[in-house]
Amino acid sequence: MIVADQEFIDSLPNNNEYVLLTNGGIGWTYDAAADVFIAPQPYPSWTLDSNFDWQPPTPKPSTGKRYRWTEEELEWIEVVLA
């Protein structure tokens, strides 16, 4: 994998044989069968869904407050700013 802009890709011989992917990053895995990059698993308890997104065992609360995941308790904890 290389990181390049479109101009560089266009300058390569047989440039129609390359695949331009716009997501992914260091530590990500490429799934050739699905033609997607998969982010690293954020926590051991999280599972990959059918859209290749990592999901926690319980959904993040949608109360408008800030939360962080705690793997030790397997729950969302409200972040209280002082």
Overview of the molecule:
With 82 residues, the protein is mainly β. It has 2 domains: 1-40, no CATH class; 44-82, no CATH class. 7% of the residues lie in helices and 22% in strands. It has a two-stranded antiparallel sheet with strand order 1-2. The longest helix has 6 residues, at 6-11. 0% of the residues are buried. The model has no long low-confidence stretch (mean pLDDT 87).
What descriptors fit this protein?
mainly beta; 7% helix; 82 residues; 6 strands; two-stranded antiparallel sheet; single chain; 2 domains
Number of domains: 2
Per DSSP, the total helix count is 1
- What's the main sheet like? 2 strands, antiparallel
> Which strands sit side by side, in order, in the main sheet?
1-2
From the alpha-carbon coordinates, what is the Rg to the nearest angstrom?
18 Å
Average pLDDT reading: 87
Shape: elongated
Distance separating the two termini: 44 Å
Portion in beta strands: 15-25%
Low-pLDDT stretches:
none
**Share of helical residues:** under 10%
- What sequence of helices (H) and strands (E) makes up the elements? HEEEEEE
Number of strands: 6
Protein structure class = mainly beta
State the gist of this model:
The chain contains one helix and six strands; from the N terminus they run αββββββ. The protein has one helix spanning 6-11; strands at 29-31, 36-38, 47-48, 54-55, 67-70, 75-78. A hairpin with a 4-residue loop joins strand 1 and strand 2 (36-38).
